[in-house]
Design brief:
Helices cover about 20% and strands about 40% of the residues. By secondary structure, the chain is an alpha+beta fold. The chain has a single domain (about 5-70), classed as SH3 type barrels (Roll), CATH 2.30.30.90. The mean pLDDT is about 95.
Amino acid sequence: MTLDKLPIGKEGKIKAVGGQGMLRLRLLDMGLIPGTLLKITRIAPMGDPIELLVRGYRLSIRLEDAKTVEIEVD
């Protein structure tokens, strides 16, 4: 499953971060590292961006970027 499909309030664990070049590096720099737990806390009214709770801080990313992050839900 990809991060863009995770419902609000559910937790997931990052399996892999896709993308290419600078996009992938930027996601990794923001803390989206395989093995990290995260939760979607809010979605903007028009559906983009989404807000995540990752490593104790809130992070907003575009839905297009969220499609490159593979997660597993327990």
